[in-house]
Every structure is written in C-alpha cells, then in structure tokens.
Amino acid sequence: MGSRPDSDAFPWQLKILIAGGFGVGKTTFVGSASEIEPLSTEEHLTTASLDTDSLAGVERKSTTTVAMDFGRITFPEDNVVLYLFGTPGQDRFWFMWDELSRGTVGAIVLADTRRLQDCFGAIEFFEQRGIYFLVAVNEFDNAMYYTPDEVRNALALHESVPLLLCDARDTQSATRTLISLLEYVLTTSAPQPTP
Amino acid sequence: MRPYIVTNGRTHPSATLELLSMVRSTGRVACDRLGPEHAQTLRLCHSPTTVAEVAGHLRQPAVVVKILLSDLIGTGAVTTHDPTATAEVTTDLIEAVLNGLKTRL
Ligand SMILES: Nc1nc2c(ncn2[C@@H]2O[C@H](COP(=O)(O)OP(=O)(O)OP(=O)(O)O)[C@@H](O)[C@H]2O)c(=O)[nH]1
Ligand SMILES: [Mg+2]
C-alpha cells in the first residue's frame, strides 16, 4: 500500500454501516463481528423546532441524544482498521446517517421478514446516495420463512443488489456478510488506479 | 465524571474532531501533570485510536470527549489525524480488509 507521509503511525480506516429498522439486530451484528466489546457513544444533536405555543412561532432549539454503537476489527499486518457503525434505528435520526455515511465503503441493511417495510427507508437512503449496500435477512427463530426471491420482490430490490440470509448472533455469519459486501463493492466498482 | 464540570462549562471543542478522527499521545506531556479527566483521556490515546473509541471507554458523550481531546491537542500532548484525508477508499484497502476477514472464518 502507498505511503502517507504525515501519518506513519496512524492506521488506514475502512468504515461499514450496519443499518435497518428498530430492533432488527444491528447492535447484535456489530457485537458478533467486532473483535472488541461493542462500544457506544452518545452524540448530542441540536435540532431547531418550531415552538407552536409561542405567539410569534419562534424557532427554539432542543437537544436530542442519539446513541451509536460501533465495533472494530484490526488487521495489523496491513495497518488497517475496519470500523462497524450501527446506525440509529429511528427514522427521525436520518440526518445522522449523512455524517456517518461520509467516507463509508458500503452498508449492510438488516431486514426482519416480519417487518420488511422497516428497512425501506434505509434502502432508499443508500440508493439515493449511490452508496453500495446489500440486504441481509436476519433470521429470527419464530419468523415465517420466505424465499430470497419473495423478499427481493417485496423490497423491490434491484437485481444487482445482493440479498442473503444471516444470523446476527453468529460471528462467522456476520463475518461472511461483511465479506459479501466487500466482494460486491470490488466487482461492481470500476477499477481505480492506486496512487 | 460530570460532563459540565469536566469541560468547564464549554460546549464546543476548539479542534475539529469527528468520531473517526484518529488521536495518539505524543509522549511530550506526562499524565501526572494533568487533572484526572485529562490524564484518563491521555492514557486511552497511548496507541493510535479514534475519538469514538475514547468516548466509548470513558462513557462520555462524544462532544465532551472532543473538548477534552482538544485541550490535549492544544498543549501538544495529543496529535490528531483528520479522517477526511483517508476518506478515499482504494481497491488496495478493500482487498486488504477482505483478505483479513477471510482469515477469520
Ligand atoms: N432469534 C434471534 N434473535 C436476535 C437475532 N438478532 C438479534 N436478536 C435479538 O433481537 C433483539 C434486538 O436486537 P438488537 O441487536 O438490539 O437490535 P438493534 O437493531 O440494535 O435495535 P435498536 O438499536 O433498538 O434499533 C435482541 O434481544 C437480540 O438478542 C437473531 O438473529 N435471531
Ligand atoms: Mg441497537
């Protein structure tokens, strides 16, 4: 890999987002794949809201707190670190995703077949921004079984987007899902000359 | 740690730090010359790490940790690396991670 004069001791970073609806298994996935116990940090967000009670309808600022969990996997031989970020599951935190998605190599959208519609928002977000993603159906024990084609149809997924099954609780399964995403990115993206 | 006290009532960090900004102690400032919060933060930067990770270990909101780290950067105790400089995702980088992940299976 090329050298970076200003940062010899700093590792290279790669970032993957783990997205999907509320309670779909994002934190579980990050924890299974990560080599460290998943950590969590809060980001304070200031949002302007219209104060409907006041006569003038003045804008008031309110602060919300969003918890984000993340994990990492280090590859010391190459001085590379892979970071996994679980995105906030609630729709009202979409704007957080913009910051998180900057510089990301791609995203894994987790889906629960009992509530497929919960991941529509995430799929739309990545489609619109041209961010590589795949959909991984997290198989919950008491969920009805659907064939991958049924799920693909229900999600109106483009045929090029990989769809696979995973168990977010299982390290091997989570790791294989990450591998699938990176293989998809490599085969889909135009080869870039390295500096 | 009580966030407000730690940060002296400040709400904005002076250095531009993102969750994935890398930080590392320079070794130029000894921990015992610092207050407990700053010393604890500095110890977590012994080897290169991210703002997010320091925040996770300190169990403090990211903004508080960014302020503590800004202080340490200001005194030369910590050096930082802007993640936007590494934002370009090259094929080499993806392949390195891909091969590394395969060895974990
Ligand atoms: N049976 C089964 N349970 C799972 C699986 N993945 C996650 N769970 C459980 O589902 C619940 C929710 O998982 P989380 O990982 O917290 O989901 P999340 O997407 O992070 O949730 P939010 O952050 O609240 O949106 C937890 O109780 C998990 O133990 C799975 O593959 N199979
Ligand atoms: Mg979660």
UniProtKB/TrEMBL annotation, chain A:
Pfam families cross-referenced by the UniProt entry: ATP_bind_1 (PF03029)
InterPro entries: Gliding_Motility_GTPase (IPR052705), Gpn (IPR004130), P-loop_NTPase (IPR027417)
Highest taxon, organism lineage: Bacteria
This protein's UniProt keywords: GTP-binding, Hydrolase, Nucleotide-binding
GTP-binding recorded as keyword: yes
Keyword Nucleotide-binding on entry: yes
Molecular functions per Gene Ontology: GTP binding; hydrolase activity
Protein name in the entry: Signal recognition particle receptor subunit beta, a GTPase
Organism name: Actinopolyspora biskrensis
